[in-house]
Amino acid sequence: MTDQVSVTRAPRLPREERRQQVLAAALVVFSTSGYHAASMDEIAEEAGVSKPVLYQHFPGKLELYLELLDAGLEQLIDAARAALSATDNATRVSAMVDAFFSFVADPHGAFRLVFESDMANDAAVRERVDAADLELARMAAAVIADDTGLSDEEALLLASGMLGLVQVSARRWMRAGPDRLPREGASELVASLAWRGISGFPLTHPPQAE
Q1: Which residue, 37, 130, 148, 184, could crosslink 205 as a Cys pair with Cβ 3.0–4.6 Å?
Q2: What is the predicted pLDDT for the residue at 157?
Q3: Domain final position from 32, 59, 86
Q4: Rounded-to-integer distance, Cα 107 and Cα 77, Å
Q5: How many other CB atoms sit within 10 Å of the CB of residue 153?
Q6: Cβ neighbours for 134, distance < 8 A, ≥ 6 positions apart
Q7: Sign of the CA dihedral 192, 194, 200, 201?
Q8: Same domain, 27 and 81
Q9: pLDDT of amino acid 1
Q10: How far apart are CA 157 and CA 162, in angstroms?
Q11: Calpha distance 64→119 (Å, rounded)
């Protein structure tokens, strides 16, 4: 008589929970390998699901990538919006800088997809990143215009310059290795530079005459 062996199967996850599991696995693979080198086989293996299950949630690799990119951009925009809700400008600048440094330092975040993607020239990716850059700049520009009296275009130019400074500095810090300079110290250093620049504009600075 053949002994019967009972097989214990893993519990079936709810659809949304399985979807989040796939997204988390895909983020690991894309961040490590880049878009072009990553495969759906690798993502399915990382997620612990079969390829048919993977395709039940996402029709292809690009759709999966774009959803992760959208989530990463939304996370950064939400953090920036929270930073700008502070009541004084020095705190706003410091919090905005820290939001970028926290974003690139998050080991589970999507900063590589946003800032260092091998899909940067793809039209769908470029459109999303450019739109997020503009939204971030407009958010900061609105505060600058309200406080300085500069025109909307002048404020947008200043905001874009400040955000470029912060973004490039945060990426440089991350590439150099966070162990060389703690995040808090790096963020404070860049915030000090940004604040010394923007605080030079008086609160009642009028728009330049045409």
Answers
A1: 148
A2: 96
A3: 59
A4: 18
A5: 11
A6: none
A7: negative
A8: no
A9: 43
A10: 9
A11: 13
pLDDT band for 13, please (50, 70, 90 cuts): low
- Report the range out of 1-15, 50-64, 107-121, 129-143 with the highest average pLDDT: 129-143
Q: Which residue shows structure tokens 């703690």? A: 182
170-98-134 Cα angle (round to 5): 70
pLDDT at 144 over 80: yes
Q: Identify the DSSP state of 86.
A: S
For residues 84 and 92, the answer to whether their CB atoms sit within 8 Å is yes
**φ, ψ of residue 4 in degrees (nearest 5):** -90, 130
Q: 207 in helix, strand or coil?
A: coil
CATH code of the domain covering residue 148: 1.10.357.10
User: DSSP H helical segments within 149-176, as ranges?
Assistant: 152-176
144 and 183 share a domain? Answer: yes
CA distance 196 to 178: 24
Band (pLDDT 50/70/90 cuts) for residue 124 is very high
Residues 136, 172, single domain; the answer is yes
Handedness of CA 38, 44, 46, 47 (dihedral sign): positive
